[in-house]
Amino acid sequence: MNRGWNRIVPYLMILPNYLIFAVFVLAPVLWIVYLGFTDYTILQPSEWIGGRNYERLFKDTLFHKAIINTIWYWIGTIVPAILLGLVLAALLTMKIRLLAAFRAFIYLPGVLSSVAVAMTWLWLLDPLRGPINGALEAVGIEGRNWLQNPDTSLPSVIVIGIWTGLGYAMIVLLAGIQGISESLYEAASLDGASGPQRFRYITVPLLKPILLFLFITATIRSFQVFDLVYILTGGGPANSSTTIVTQIVGASFQEYRMGYASSMAVFLLGITLIVTMLQYWLGSRNTTTE
Amino acid sequence: MRKKAWALTIAPIAALSLALAGCGGGANEDNGAAAGQGSGASSGEQVTLKFWYPTAEQIAIDAVNAQIDKFESLHPDIKVELTTIPFSEYFQKLSVAYSGGLQPDVHGLGFGQLISTVGQGKYLDLQPYIDKDSWEGKDDFFPDILKAGQWQGGQYGLLLPEIRPLAWRKDFFEEAGLDPESPPKTVDELFELANKLKVVENGKTVRAGIDIATSNGEQPYLSLLLLLGEDFYDDEGNPTFDSDTSIKLVERMVQLYKDGAIIPYNSQQVGGSTFTQSQAAMAFVSTAGAAALKQSAGADKIGWALPPEGAAGNRTSLVLGTFLTAAKNTKHPEEAWEFLKFWFEKDNVFEFATKTGFIPPLQSLKDEYVKLSPENEISFEALNHAQGYRASELWGINVKYLRLALEEAYNGVKPAADALKDNAKLARDEIAGLK
Q1: Model pLDDT for residues B331-352, shown as the tens digit of each residue
Q2: What global pTM score does this model have?
Q3: Which of A87-101, A271-285, B161-175 has the largest mean confidence?
Q4: Which of A19, B45, B188, B224 is most buried (most C-beta within 10 Å)?
Q5: Residue limits of CATH 3.40.190.10 in chain B
Q6: Contact across the interface for A23 and B117, Cβ inside 8 Å
Q7: Which tens digits make up the pLDDT trace of B376-433?
Q8: Choosing among A13, A41, A43, A137, which should be mutated to test the B contact, i.e. which has the most B CBs within 10 A?
Q9: From A9-13, A74-78, A156-160, B88-92, the region with the lowest mean pLDDT
Q10: What CATH architecture applies to the domain B166-305+402-434?
């Protein structure tokens, strides 16, 4: 009796969490997958239409543009944010004055409301009255309408994305660096390794698991980018900064085509899964071969 | 043992899923909307009407509450339960409520929201109630404003209108050496003055000649297109924004942009338009923003006029606003109609409109309304020749591609003609795919 009960108890312990996951995450996801095969418009019951939504998705040039923009945003924010985060984390392990203040200021953008961040940048980038154009013009560089120009709208959003993501990368990498044993650095110093050499041959290799974690979480977040884009540019001008989630929101709550929006959401889920698994496989493979 | 563990885990989940599936649906499809079907109040029982209104502004919330208090004092057997929701989230929440069968009895709706969803049969047809009561408000309503809430012979909403006549900055006119009391009288003159009124410093436009949003800019475009006697889609919802008239109009607007007479901005940005920020000399401005404009710029600096004449003499103003309507499946259709009727009685709609910036849509209120402020005369006159969006479930698709065409044209991605034609074709293809 005891043995049987002891086997059941662990499952009972995780059951509440599993039920919550099943009801509030798994069931809605399965429902969305189903809706992707219907013409649901939220005000009317859904009707099964098979793969028509996915056929439209493959022909939808606006959605293709959104995919390309999302990929640019992903690459454009992850790589600089992690690289700069790594450099900053390494610098912030040094014993300098006001260390805690520097850490807090760098991390702060990541914990602020993204709406507040976007509103602030709207003011900063105002073409007529914004301080950024003012500062540029003071040094003889012509200011631009950064957010309303198709050439600069997405790069502007990417820069702001790096700014908000930098702190998170820095904090996670800092925790990783602080977990590396000092004796390794001491041994390397004794062998005559310089600072950059210690960074390259000790810090970076030992941070690989954390870098993998950061890549995966930052990838998932960057694929879901919406609030910054929505407030800063609305996805324009001329869809130059539209992203997958912007298209999902447009299809669902502006055009009321929930079925089509669901198919877009399933597509997003699919590519996020593929990219994440690819990263995990590559990252795990590199770790095990060492 | 392993199988038992699986069974113990899967069984509750399966049971829960079945229970949840059984709870789904629930929207009552019975049509209880025929006029004359009574409900609780007619038998003396207390009736509670759920009322949703799209606003986050305290002035509007207070005005709505004042209306409700007055209604409840006159109808002790009807209680109104108000929920206010910011406009940006409003329709999402309302449509979720409808899909779950939890919709309010009476609610507000944005112009585009009503005309694009009226065909889905969710709103109460008020016509039978109007006919049964021989409602005098029907004849007092401005015909174009009453028509805005009609679809296939039924009346599905009553509009609290806000209209877009022409506003101009008299001080900017003076600075440019123009007569401050003389706004443009024709569309051609409007374009001509826009170039004269722009202010360019160090190659940068610091004041636009005219306020035209270059992102999400369909409304100023439509304000101009209506003057030329056309619309951007027809009664069947097919796009018409690739017509020759529309192409020529957009080419002129793009030229204004290239000449620096327009400052590019997104109409949905929080900071407001270039005109409200004193960065433009003319605009098709909503009368709902008149009070704030007068406060920021000074009442004596702003002039109001009917839109300039188009080629065929049209002076049609774009009218938008908020509809009040009732849910088709409301359990209290009679009480819902009583509430709507009360709202649009002369004294009540006048008081509400003047507090919130809407225009009272009743012709008999003209004298009283004009006394409040000189520009009100223009607003009232504009209601005589006003047009909003046509009722069509394809409105959203047309707006999407029109916006894209305008943005592509302004930003030089494509020439105006190509942008409009290509996007009209995309809209037609998408519409064909839906059918």
Answers
A1: 999 999 999 999 999 999 999 9
A2: 0.81
A3: B161-175
A4: B224
A5: 42-163+320-387, 166-305+402-434
A6: no
A7: 888 888 988 899 998 888 998 999 999 999 999 999 999 999 999 999 999 999 899 8
A8: A43
A9: B88-92
A10: 3-Layer(aba) Sandwich (3.40)
**How distant is the alpha carbon of residue A217 from its chain centre?**
7
Interface list for A 103-122 with B (CB within 8 A): 119, 122
The helix/strand/coil state of B426 is: helix
Measured between beta carbons, the chain A residues lying within 8 angstroms of B411 are: 149-150, 237-238, 240
Task: Give which of A35, A44, A60, A262 to mutate to test B binding, by max B Cβ within 10 Å.
Answer: A44
How far B376 CA lies from chain A's nearest CA (Å)?
33
- A96 touching B (Cβ < 8 Å): no
In a domain, A45, yes or no: no
* Sheet (strand B282-284) strand order: B282-284, B166-169, B302-305
Contacts of A18 in chain B (CB under 8 A): 9, 13
**Cβ of residue B420 closer than 8 Å to a chain A Cβ:** no
- B183 pLDDT exceeds 70? yes
With respect to residue A25, please indicate whether it lies within any of the assigned structural domains.
no
Local confidence band at B149 (pLDDT 50, 70, 90 cut-offs): very high
The ipTM estimated for the assembled molecules is: 0.77
Q: Which amino acid is at A243?
A: T
> Cα–Cα distances in Å, from B93 out to A222, B99, B424?
27, 10, 31
The pLDDT value recorded for residue A64 is 95
Pick the CATH number of B42-163+320-387 from 3.40.190.10, 3.40.50.300, 3.30.2320.80, 3.20.20.70: 3.40.190.10
Asked if residue A73 is part of any domain, the answer here is yes
Chain A residues in contact with B116 by the CB 8 A cut-off are 256
CATH number reported for the structural domain that contains residue A230 in this entry = 1.10.3720.10
Residue from A8, A42, A144, A153 whose CB has the most chain B CBs within 10 Å, to mutate = A42
pLDDT at B400: 92
d(CA B63, CA B68): 9
Q: Name the residue among B91, B120, B266 with its Cβ closest to that of A236.
A: B266
Residue A147 sits in which domain range? 56-289
Domains of chain A: total: 1
pLDDT at B280: 95
Chain B residue with Cα closest to A49: B434
A128 assigned to some structural domain: yes
What HEC string does chain A produce?
CHHHHHHHHHHHHHHHHHHHHHHHHHHHHHHHHHHCCECCCCCCCCCECCCHHHHHHHHCHHHHHHHHHHHHHHHHHHHHHHHHHHHHHHHCCCCCCCHHHHHHHHHHHHHCCHHHHHHHHHHHCCCCCCHHHHHHHHCCCCCCCCCCCCCCHHHHHHHHHHHHHHHHHHHHHHHHHHCCCHHHHHHHHHCCCCHHHHHHHHHHHHCHHHHHHHHHHHHHHHHCCCHHHHHHCCCCCCCCCCCHHHHHHHHHHHCCCHHHHHHHHHHHHHHHHHHHHHHHHHHHHHHHHC
